[in-house]
Design goal:
- The protein contains six helices and two strands, in the order ααααββαα.
- The chain is mainly α.
- α1 crosses α5 and α2 crosses α5.
- It is globular.
Length: 153
């Protein structure tokens, strides 16, 4: 495979990622949320009771950035912090009823976005692309862990 083709692939990946993030941000605003809040809510629905530190690690965020985001979700009544019974310095995170209703409502938005973005693309092309993106993601993560390479997790 030519180096030019690889460069084009990376350029398209970066540009498509940026455009998709912007598109999701705009659609999320229509539901009174942000993409960042949405990601936290979805993860907590899957893994309720995570500590703030564990959630930051799973989302690959700096803990200080996550704390501000969590503060906003608590202020909006979507999330609650509960003391960790095993570590009084830590909090566990749980969705409130309102948070659960919002994340359930966001499922339909997520489905609409996927349908809009991937309309008319054959299923086999989507499967192949997904497999490739998973490989690229794992490669990037492994490069970030190698002392020979400088990359962000």
């Amino acid at each position: 495979m030519s180096l030019d083709l690889k460069r084009q692939f990376i350029a398209q990946l970066v540009e498509s990622s940026r455009l998709l993030r912007n598109y999701i941000d705009n659609r999320a605003k229509s539901r009174g949320t942000t993409r960042a809040q949405w990601i936290v809510l979805f993860r907590l629905r899957q893994q309720e009771g995570l500590s703030q530190v564990d959630l930051a690690e799973v989302l690959e965020l700096q803990p200080i950035s996550l704390v501000r985001l969590l503060d906003r979700l608590v202020e909006h009544g979507l999330l609650e912090r509960r003391p960790d019974p095993k570590d009084r310095r830590a909090n566990r995170l749980f969705l409130t009823g309102a948070g659960r209703r919002l994340v359930d409502d966001l499922d339909s938005l997520r489905d609409a976005i996927a349908s809009d973005v991937l309309r008319d693309i054959p299923g086999e092309a989507i499967r192949t692309s997904l497999d490739t993106l998973v490989e690229v993601k794992e490669r990037i993560k492994s490069l970030g862990e190698s002392p020979d390479h400088i990359a962000v997790k």
